[in-house]
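Hi support team,

I've been running sequence recovery on a batch of backbones for a student project. Most finish fine, but this one hangs at about 90% for roughly twenty minutes before it completes. I'm not sure whether the input is malformed or the queue is just slow. I've pasted the structure tokens below so you can try to reproduce it. Let me know if you need the job ID as well.

Thanks,
M.K.
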């Protein structure tokens, strides 16, 4: 039986590795540089939106008032006229500190979860390769599979989802490596 406290060190090492590698990938490579398109006349679009004082949140337009409204001629005309948009409004000028802290906590949580599930299948002293395979599969699922819904439902470009899935595979291997190395003996 492996205690949860015995998994804290490998989870922490994993979170540090994932945090560092993801930071390097995002800051030093062009890998994600094209994930978002620039708006044509960005200044004009932002100036046009400011008077609405949109609060941070998720928006979609045109948005029907209910299922019945989706079939109405008025709503169909709006859809046909276009554009259809999904918009995430974030608070301005807040920096990235909170997101980075949450990313670290998330990475730690994924690692701890993957280690916990693996600890229910394998005892102390299990070989590196077996621990690596189990933890990697679980961490990959936690880091990547849920992203695919964004392309299915919200039309996020599949190329962006594929790159994020590859990132998730890298993070899963880092997590698995930390657990394989530090697995309780």
């Amino acid at each position: 039986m492996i205690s949860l406290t015995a998994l804290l060190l490998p989870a922490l090492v994993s979170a540090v590795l994932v945090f560092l590698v993801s930071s390097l990938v995002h800051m030093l490579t062009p890998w994600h540089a094209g994930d978002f398109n620039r708006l044509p006349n960005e200044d004009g679009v932002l100036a046009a939106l400011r008077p609405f004082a949109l609060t941070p949140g998720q928006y979609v337009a045109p948005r029907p008032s209910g299922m019945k409204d989706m079939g109405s001629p008025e709503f169909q005309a709006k859809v046909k006229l276009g554009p259809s948009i999904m918009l995430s409004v974030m608070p301005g000028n807040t920096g990235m500190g909170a997101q980075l802290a949450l990313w670290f906590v998330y990475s730690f949580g994924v690692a701890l979860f993957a280690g916990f599930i693996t600890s229910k299948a394998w005892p102390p002293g299990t070989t590196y390769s077996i621990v690596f395979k189990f933890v990697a599969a679980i961490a990959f699922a936690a880091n990547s599979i849920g992203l695919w819904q964004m392309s299915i439902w919200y039309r996020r470009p599949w190329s962006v989802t594929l790159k994020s899935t590859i990132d998730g595979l890298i993070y899963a291997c880092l997590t698995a490596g930390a657990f394989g190395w530090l697995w309780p003996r």
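--
Follow-up from support: It reproduced on our side and the slowdown came from queue contention, not your input. The chain has two domains: 4-36+94-182, 42-89. No action needed from you.
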